[in-house]
Amino acid sequence: MKKTCKILGFAGSLRKGSYNRSLLRAALELLPEDAELEVFDLEGIPLYNQDLEKQPAERVKEFKEKIRGADAILIATPEYNYSIPGVLKNAIDCASRPYGDNAFEHKPVALMGASAGMMGSGRAQYHLRQCFVFLSCFALNQPEVMVPFAQEKIDKDGRVTDPQTRKLIRQLLENLVAWTIRLTSST
Ligand SMILES: Cc1cc2nc3c(=O)[nH]c(=O)nc-3n(C[C@H](O)[C@H](O)[C@H](O)COP(=O)(O)O)c2cc1C
Questions:
Q1: Which of 73, 95, 117, 157 has a 20 to 30 A CA-CA distance from 84?
Q2: Does 117 score more than 70 pLDDT?
Q3: Distance 68 CA to ligand 1 centre (A)
């Protein structure tokens, strides 16, 4: 029997009608049969303060446990001012500390993102990929899922309606599962 790949997903937006939350919702619908996806809400993660990192908030502990319990990570990010939204960067910072207790270490990670503009969050995604180097996690290179003009591809109920976007998300999930198997079978 094939092992199920447990994926933890989170979006870098707290907005109820978030396009990036919609991408995760589409991922839930498009999962390969050998994968499961749990979506974690970054709501409630406090601002990182190094003075307090030895007494992390319950929500941070929970987030780190979920990351550690997952075989792979799926991040859906918006782009804010050509970069990573503070909510997402802060959550990643919280889960990577204290030094030596980085929950992301050696995790396979896939990225996707949607924006209202023409770059589909690409600049934020490349900034995130730079963070992955120091986090020492293993980023999946392709496909790059950058969804521009998201308002034209996601309906008012938050469903991703664009067939090409759905196809890319499915491909991303298939590649993430294959990448995870490849990494875990060689370690
Ligand atoms: C502070 C802020 C900065 C933004 N900067 C960008 C940007 O650099 N590029 C872009 O394409 N959209 C930008 N936008 C628009 C976002 O793409 C849009 O708000 C999108 O819906 C955010 O993702 P969400 O729907 O998942 O919340 C910005 C929005 C905000 C609130």
A1: 157
A2: yes
A3: 29
Q: How far is 8 from 14, CA to CA, in rounded Å?
A: 17
Class of residue 135 by CB neighbours under 10 A (exposed 0-12, middle 13-18, buried 19+): buried
Closest residue CA from atom 23 of ligand 1:
78
Which residue from 106, 107, 103, 77 is spatially nearest to 7, judged by alpha carbons? 107
Whether the per-residue pLDDT at 186 is higher than 70: the answer is no
The Cα 17–Cα 31 span in angstroms is 22
What tokens appear for 6 in the block? 């447990």
Atom 14 (ligand 1) nearest CA: 80
Contact 63, 95 (CB under 8 A): yes
Around ligand 1, the residues with Cβ closer than 6 Å are: 13, 15, 18-20, 78-82, 115-117, 119
For the record, the structure tokens of 149 come out as 């003009």
Q: What is the pLDDT of residues 48-87, one digit of tens each?
A: 999 999 999 999 999 999 999 999 999 999 999 999 999 9
Q: Which of 81, 150, 55, 86 is nearest to 112 (CA)?
A: 150
The CA distance from 64 to 17, in Å, is: 26
79 CA distance to ligand 1 middle (Å): 5
Residue 16 has pLDDT above 80, yes or no: yes
